[in-house]
């Protein structure tokens, strides 16, 4: 509905004067939250920039004196390269912005406040903008994850096809060749050579069966047969070398559903592999705690570190994979590092169907 140009100029002027104060309070809130992902400088910077756009839009609407009824305001487009935080984290950021505006405006002396009607419209416009942005980003985020999931499935199918072709198909071809030679030798009366070809074919078939077992083993869930700590320790043993590694897994692993347990293992494994390969650390500490409602893990090293604000970490593609796996579970992966001061990877995964987690 339209209410006349300029009827809300008081609310618009107040919000414009207090914009920087609101943004400062909002940024402080992001840095103080218990979400390590929101505390990361690049994400916090992007969220503050988006908050500035939201406030500018609300100010413009107030000055125009227009108020769009529920459901008529078009959803904003999500710019490419925007924050890919999970909707849970995006919701926390949205709540923090609304709280920052509320606290700042309520602190204005009563004589300087707009009327109750103007204030109500201001908060209604603010609420609509925040929800629209959050919804658009959540939809884009889910679409992105679905595309990554499809791509991961395609990659896995190609890997299996490649292994079957390179190993099993090649070996079966050799078996067929041995049988054909056997027939030729047998027809020519060279029985000893014919027997050798049968023996060769038998050995190749055994090798082929071993290759098939390796492929099938790779398709099975690791956690069906061994505890998390055992799997992580075994992986490091296979890598060999490196500095000292300390692994601690506490809590009841029975709380982990098979799919969650497998993905958690792959996330932690990638983090400790990155530390092993790139950090040049003397000590790597891996800590995982399974609690009612959530799992939290930390992989920390005392290695070379890097500046997350200016430098992509080594093993960047692996870091992206870790984050995507965690986000598909409703969790998050955050990085804390300083050049020369080591690196800390923080993993959070909510456990559905249990109590106590802030992501349930």
Describe this protein's structure.
With 360 residues, this protein is an alpha+beta fold. The protein has helices at 9-17, 19-32, 36-39, 41-64, 87-106, 116-187, 191-219, 228-239, 258-278, 316-328; strands at 244-251, 283-291, 294-301, 332-337, 343-350. A hairpin with a 5-residue loop joins strand 4 and strand 5.
Index terms:
61% helix; alpha+beta; 360 residues; elongated; 11% strand; 5-stranded mixed β-sheet; disordered C terminus; disordered N terminus
The N- and C-terminal alpha carbons lie at a distance of 39 Å
Strand content: 5-15%
The sequence of SSEs as H and E is HHHHHHHHEHEEHEE
Number of DSSP helices? 10
Protein structure class: alpha+beta
How would you state the average pLDDT, rounded?
80
Looking at how many chains there are and whether they match, the oligomeric state comes to single chain
Low-confidence parts, pLDDT < 50 over ≥5 residues?
1-8, 354-360
Strands, total number: 5
**Major sheet summary line:** 5 strands, mixed
User: What's the helical proportion of residues?
Assistant: 55-70%
Radius of gyration: 29 Å
Shape: elongated
Strand order of the largest sheet: 1-2-3-5-4
């Amino acid at each position: 509905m339209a209410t006349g140009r300029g009827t809300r100029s008081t609310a618009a002027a107040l919000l414009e004067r207090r914009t920087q104060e609101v943004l400062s309070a909002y940024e402080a809130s992001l840095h103080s939250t218990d979400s390590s992902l929101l505390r990361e400088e690049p994400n916090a910077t992007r969220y503050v920039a988006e908050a500035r756009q939201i406030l500018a839009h609300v100010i413009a609407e107030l000055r125009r004196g227009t108020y769009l009824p529920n459901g008529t305001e078009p959803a904003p487009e999500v710019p490419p390269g925007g924050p890919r935080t999970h909707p849970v984290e995006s919701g926390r950021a949205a709540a923090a912005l609304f709280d920052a505006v509320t606290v700042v405006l309520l602190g204005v002396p009563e004589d300087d406040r707009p009327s109750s009607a103007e204030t109500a419209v201001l908060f209604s416009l603010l609420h609509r903008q925040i929800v629209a942005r959050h919804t658009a980003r959540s939809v884009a985020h889910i679409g992105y994850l679905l595309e990554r999931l499809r791509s991961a499935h395609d990659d896995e199918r190609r890997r299996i096809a490649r292994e079957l072709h390179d190993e099993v198909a090649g070996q079966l071809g050799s078996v067929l060749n041995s049988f054909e030679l056997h027939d030729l030798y047998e027809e020519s009366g060279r029985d000893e050579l014919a027997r050798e070809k049968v023996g060769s074919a038998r050995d190749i078939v055994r090798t082929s069966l071993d290759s098939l077992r390796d492929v099938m083993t790779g398709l099975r869930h690791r956690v069906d047969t061994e505890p998390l700590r055992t799997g992580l320790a075994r992986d490091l043993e296979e890598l060999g070398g490196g500095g000292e590694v300390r692994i601690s897994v506490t809590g009841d692993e029975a709380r982990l559903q098979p799919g969650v347990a497998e993905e958690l293992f792959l996330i932690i494994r990638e983090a400790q592999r990155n530390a092993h390969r790139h950090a040049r650390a003397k000590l790597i500490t891996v800590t995982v705690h399974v609690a009612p409602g959530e799992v939290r893990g930390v992989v920390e090293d005392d290695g070379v570190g890097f500046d997350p604000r200016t430098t992509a970490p080594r093993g960047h593609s692996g870091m992206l994979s870790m984050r995507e796996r965690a986000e598909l579970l409703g969790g998050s992966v955050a990085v804390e590092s300083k050049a020369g001061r080591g690196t800390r990877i923080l993993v959070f995964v909510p456990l559905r169907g249990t109590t106590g987690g802030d992501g349930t």
